[in-house]
Design brief:
- Helices cover 82% and strands 0% of the residues.
- It is mostly helical and 137 residues long.
- The protein has one domain.
- The N and C termini lie close together (7 Å).
Length: 137
């Protein structure tokens, strides 16, 4: 069980981090600056980002990947990951929309869709790889 969790965590982390790096560094490089402008720091707080990624990926693994490996279903991982992403990203974006001046409604929809997509893909990939490398005993 421990080996399965370690493999699932590692694969989920790689998949999610690669997707998010492409999203933030290439696809939406100017979107966030245009939509929320002065709310952005000149340079990201990498410590806070690292803590977010560890917690978020652990959540994906616990709530989406491991149950899907147990059921041997990458499709379940895809659906569970999408739902987890919607809940998590909606919590962040809608709270910001409710409490911050200048938070972009456009960004709310884009960000929630991105959270659903990236979480779904990362979870499904992690399930598929984990089933091959460290199937449930």
């Amino acid at each position: 069980m421990f080996r399965m969790f370690v493999v699932a965590f590692a694969v989920t982390a790689v998949a999610f981090l690669v997707l998010d790096a492409i999203w933030l560094g290439v696809i939406t490089r100017n979107l966030y600056r245009r939509e929320i402008g002065d709310l952005l720091l000149p340079k990201p707080n990498f410590g806070a980002a690292a803590i977010f990624y560890v917690i978020y990926i652990a959540g994906l693994v616990h709530f989406c990947v491991v149950p899907s490996v147990t059921r041997q279903s990458a499709m379940r991982g895809l659906v569970s990951g999408a739902l987890f992403g919607i809940v998590a990203y909606a919590t962040y974006d809608l709270t910001n929309l409710a409490t911050l001046k200048g938070w972009s409604t456009t960004l709310v929809f884009i960000d929630i869709a991105w959270g659903a997509f990236a979480s779904a893909v990362a979870s499904a990939v992690a399930v598929a790889v984990t089933l091959r490398v460290a199937p449930r005993a």
